[in-house]
Amino acid sequence: xxxxEREILxxxxxxxxxxxxxxxxxxxxxxxxxxxxxxxxxxxxxxxTVPAGERERVEQAKKNLRRERLERKQLIEDREVDFEEGxxxxxxxxxxxxxxxxxxxxxxxxxxxxxQRKEAADTKRWMNFLKQALGRDEGTVNR
Length: 143
Known about the structure:
By secondary structure, the chain is mainly alpha-helical.
């Protein structure tokens, strides 16, 4: 691959709006394993929140996608491929970026859990207030 061709490909994958209009690949090899990426992303995005059991799976998928993106980018940077193959790699990188954007834009991952934590904190503050108001706080001495 010629230097100017390499620069064209690197500019394409580094462009701010590169993912606009890009499709998430249906199937892609990520870290040596075939993944139904489009189905996975749509399945996760279809839900309003990511269930607690799925959070770790989503985080691991994002981590693997980032790693795969970096490895593919390095193939272009190191000029280990010809321009035609580089174009295919660049298209795959943009598809990976599109999938990452979709996964990163997920809303709060556990609304119910967050609500329970807030309620527990409110209850604890209220109990501490009552203890202090009634003079039963361990930090104060009753006289």
